[in-house]
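Researcher: We're teaching a course module on how sequence relates to structure. For the next exercise, students receive a sequence and then see the predicted structure as tokens, so they can try to spot secondary structure elements on their own. Here is the exercise chain.
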Amino acid sequence: MLKKIPKKRKVKSKAGGVGEKYILRLFVTGILPNSTRAVVNIKDICEKYLKGRYELEIIDIYQQPALAIEENIIAIPVLIKKLPLPEERLIGDLSDTQSVLEGLNLIS
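Model: And here is the predicted structure for the students to work with:
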């Protein structure tokens, strides 16, 4: 299950270009099944499609609740693409690779 939260966009840069670095934050809740699947799925996607050009931070909201508040997290698991802009949020276990790639602007 994956749900993309629309963000207001001003100018969309050409995302997904060769060499562009991706900064990703995945918020999870401990070892619950959806969170565990999300971790495995995003690691697989990153290694296959972004190898050598991504940073992935996995944040357990039980251990770091202040970060969840700071990012206004309302659903878990959620992946936040900080860079390249625009920022995107993807909710769910990230099992739909096609939707994740679209959400990361790697394909159109």
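Model: If you want an answer key for the exercise: Confidence is low (pLDDT under 50) at residues 5-16. The radius of gyration is 13 Å.
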